[in-house]
Amino acid sequence: MKLILxxxxxxxxxxxxxxxxxxxxxxxxxxxxxxxxxxxKTPGRCVIRDDATRIYPCIAASDTLLYVSRLCYGSYDxxxxxxLERAIPVQQAFIRIHCRETxxxxxxxxxxxxxxxxxxxxxxxxxxxxxxxxxxxxxxxxMNFESFEILFTTESQVNSLAKEIVTQWERF
Amino acid sequence: MGKIxxxxxxxxxxxxxxxxxxxxxxxxxxxxxxxxxxxxxxxQELCAALNGYTDLLLVFPLYADALPVGMLQFLKVxxxxxxxxxxxxxxxxxxxxxxxxxxxxxxxxxxxxCRRNGYRLGARLMLGSGExxxxxxxxxxxxxxxxxxxxxxxxxxxxxxxxTMPLPKKIFQWAANRYWTNYGKRFGMxxxxxxxxxxxx
Lengths: 172, 201
Ligand SMILES: Cc1cc2nc3c(=O)[nH]c(=O)nc-3n(C[C@H](O)[C@H](O)[C@H](O)COP(=O)(O)O)c2cc1C
Hints:
By secondary structure, chain A is α/β, with parallel strands linked by helices. Helices cover 32% and strands 31% of the residues of chain A. Chain A has a single domain, classed as Rossmann fold (3-Layer(aba) Sandwich), CATH 3.40.50. Chain A is built from five helices and eight strands; from the N terminus they run E-E-H-H-E-E-H-E-E-E-H-E-H. In chain A, strands 1, 2, 3, 4, 7 and 8 form a six-stranded mixed sheet that branches. A two-stranded antiparallel sheet of chain A has the order 5-6. Chain B is α/β, with parallel strands linked by helices. Bound molecules: flavin mononucleotide. Flavin mononucleotide sits between chains B (10, 12, 16-18, 61-65, 94-97, 102, 130-131) and A (32, 34, 85, 88, 142).
């Protein structure tokens, strides 16, 4: 499965049957409350029964994904960050040693090729790019990215860049 | 004498490790210290309150390799509503994994925020094994590092500290897995059930 998660509406010509697209700005997703219920009480299920429960199974099942997010202090902005925090049901409580660090065991999470488009209104300074790159390197360990590409852009270019990525997916 | 406001940015602030860390900090601070949780609704109020303080200590956990989204929301409100007199910002981040280094990216995000918004950076502490350390024989290591943090805030020396349990990763893994197995047992879950590969099914 291929997955597109965006914090703003995107317009694609037609998506193939195995591509799922979610516009986070149109969905209802609450903040994670840190209860660890998804690890200890109802493993693999979040107690908050909102739209996030439709998305994290797709995150787990996808082998190719595109995240589109505004940048905020070197991080994903609120909408994308909220969803990523709500995706911890895809992990187990248990610890493994991975790349010489402690990380969580995963449930049925398919290894992924990730493309991440981050955008801002203005030119993104190098320090902020660097922080975001470091963030994605860390995400790769916890979110099972086997490879990733980060594209920095401006708000006005987001849609055309996203379209380009998805067109490439369809070509291969 | 400085006046310190501690803000707890944990999503589960009233029952958080961050709260316990803040309490230890208060024990080692001599000046006036006020503690508050960041909630969903009090961001504006906290920004206004900041005018009365020389120092702000932000205490929060690492979430998905970065700041918890509630912290991000608070910082955005703070950016839009800066106090007239900006306090020095000190930071205490704790993460669940053993390696305190995993907090570095979140610390850099805070540093970027401070630089952009004209806050002087104070003392910083990165804690690894933050979910567990206070209830182990290594508690003293966390307490010692928080005492140093408190001293650095009081003296305005802007030091950076880090601490974690001095355990080989394998032992940490074993202890953490025992901890989580017992945690699940309280809800009638076996280890096997907690290890289910199923997600939402
Ligand atoms: C949604 C979520 C995401 C988390 N992400 C991380 C992480 O990326 N790295 C890590 O070491 N710990 C992570 N943790 C663990 C917390 O940082 C750890 O349990 C911490 O002690 C919680 O502190 P608190 O009780 O003050 O909220 C995460 C916990 C939750 C609930």
